[in-house]
Each structure stands twice: as C-alpha cells, then as structure tokens.
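Write out the 3D structure for:
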Amino acid sequence: MKKMLQQLAAYNVWANQRLMAFILSVPEELTRKSFPGSFSSLYLTLLHMWVAETAWYQRLSPESGAVNPGMNFQGSLQEVIKGLSLQNEKWKQWVDDASIAQLEESITYQNSKKETFAEPRYEILLHLFNHGTYHRGQLVSLLHQAGVHDQLPSTDFIVFCRLGQNEK
C-alpha cells in the first residue's frame, strides 16, 4: 500500500508540474477567462486545487502549521502555481515519511461544512490524489474551451510510468 501511495504522490507532483508549466506558457488573459464549469477559469481551478490540498494537509498534519490560502486569495497565477507545487511536494514528503501504521490510522476531522468524519489516512490520500486527477481533466477541458488544442502535455499515469518517473 505504501509503495502505491508513494507512486501516486510522485505522479501528482509530476502531472501537476507538466500541466502548470504548460498553463504558464499560454497568454495570461486566458488563465482568468471565464468558461462554464465547476470553477470558471484556469486560475480559479488551480487555486481550488491548492486550497483543497492544503485543507487536507492541515487535517492529516495539524501540527504542520500549513496556512490555507483560502478562496479570497488575490495573488498572481505564478503565486498560485508556486503554492500548489510546494503543497504537492509536502504531500510527497509526507507519504515518504509515513509509517504503515500512520497510513492505516483513522483520523477524525471536520469538513468545510463542519460535519465530522473519521477515515483512515490512506483513504484520504487516495481521495486527494484522485481529486487532483479530476481537476487536471477540468484544466484540460478549460484549455480546449480557450482554444488551446496543440501541444497539451499528457498527464496520464501510464505515461508517468513509461517515462520511468515512478522509479524516482
């Protein structure tokens, strides 16, 4: 189980880095342009990903002192990408450092609606990494809606594996 979670944490870093580097190459006005969807722009989708990853990190590692940027963040796209990248790396390190007992331990936490839940950490991590995959798909969809069709990087897990990234 730990090896799989380490792979997924490394994949999350790799896939986000590829897609975020590409997004930084498109005209900045496209990153804030509104389109139909859960989050109406590339910027807001990336911000949501950062906010969500930080919230989960605070739940799993309350002693970390992680500061959630919140949905009222007004920084630049570069700041959002830097924050999300750093949070991705924190997750990778957290999984690398976790023991099997820590991964299997259930924790109790409150969601954003103040509802209380208890789940093992490994289930939360699986949710977290799937959440990233889901929103990367939304980012690609937003890029298509913005008219960006060429040179989109593949962020498929199998590509990550074929490139030998899972062995690092």
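The longest strand covers residues 106-110.
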